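Quick one: structure for this chain?
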Amino acid sequence: MTDPVSGSDGPALQENTVSKQIGRNDPCHCGSGKKYKKCHLALDQQRKPKPEPAPEPDLDEEGAPPLPPNPAQLSKLIQQVRSKAPRKERAELDEILAQSQPLLDYLEHQEEIESASTALEPHREEFERLADDRDAYMARIRVLFDEEAFAPLRFTAADVRRAFEKVGYTPGSAPSDDVFVEKLRAAILHLADKDRRSQLAMKLLLLMPQYVAAGRHSDGWLIQHCAHLTTEAGGESNPFLFQMFSHGYDAWMSELTAKDNALFQEIGLEPARLRSMSMEEIDEWFQAQTADPDRKAKMEALLTANPDQRAAAIAGLERMERDSIKLLEREDAREFLLTQAEIEPSLPELLKRFQALQKSSPHLFSGSPPEETVSRAVSEAIWPAFGEMAQSIFTPERIQQLVTRLKEYRNERYASGDKIAASYAIGALNSLQQEDDPAHNYFLIALCYFSFSAHMKAMAPSESPDENAS
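Got it. Here's what it folds into:
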């Protein structure tokens, strides 16, 4: 065939890939000497085969395209794809299926859920009365979410352990401790990220219709309300999430207790006996273990073989040392504060340091400066003076007196069931054991500071009744 433009044979009969092989500014393949873009480019593009039109969708008998597969069919399709996939890809498909399953289930039962929600409307006032009574509301929450139907929604012991490893927490903190409360909140929010909250909310709503059908309208409202809180308040915890977390926390504590009990049994101490022992008996037992080289070596070997428990024990002692100064804030521990006679020799130097700090940083003494600023200023300018004060007061004999009284206080508090106060005393004793230089001992320096503060408050002039009246 002859090329209608050049009149030559051959080049124009090449495959329609010519335009892909020749650049726009290259000489044209026809031999005309012109650039390809000004010669055969347009003709070659016209010769390219046109794409096949997309097939028309199959129509049903009424002329409408078929509906996409429903959630159940889609889930079945994913399972079929998984069964034919290579082994290394199945784990990824399993994860996709697990993440999408709550949504597929929700879509499958959406009409049922919406009908149940509509059926709850006549009972709104009943739920609002319950919500207005916080004690009754929380009590009902605990009972409801303790039911077995919610077991698949609960966090596991492994979840809780992983969350606390992330936020930084060692078991043993008292529930009343503000630090523990904040760590607890952070752990819940770490687990309840956006995806998990969405899945939990859908799983909650899937359970709602059966409670409505059983006539448990207040519980149905609680489920619906908690599902809403879980999706809408993404940056906060809520009673439902707390209950789901509590189950995992209790399971984790049980695991740790079982491990501790097994360790105690290996070193020859029955857990039941340990629980019945007084603090004096516990002290005597540990002293006997550490005094015997073979027993001490066995204990150290067991702790080395159980690094998690060793780390937890060390972290627990460190926390108790930090918390030991809380002992000095208690009314029943004021006897530990220094006497006026012990404080007075250090007063001139302490007052000099405070006056210098006030002169150089007057903003610290006007209003309420940030706690971090005050802490840093006192640490840099004042704390060393309290170290010097501790050095001058706490001779070995004076430290021994303090240790004796701390042990007595610890034993009294432990026997009375006040284990929080007992742990503060244990932290103080551990601090004294670990650091024998009073000038650098955390508890002794804090003791000097608290004693000085109490002395200055006692010396401050009080307003007379006439001044109060005016």
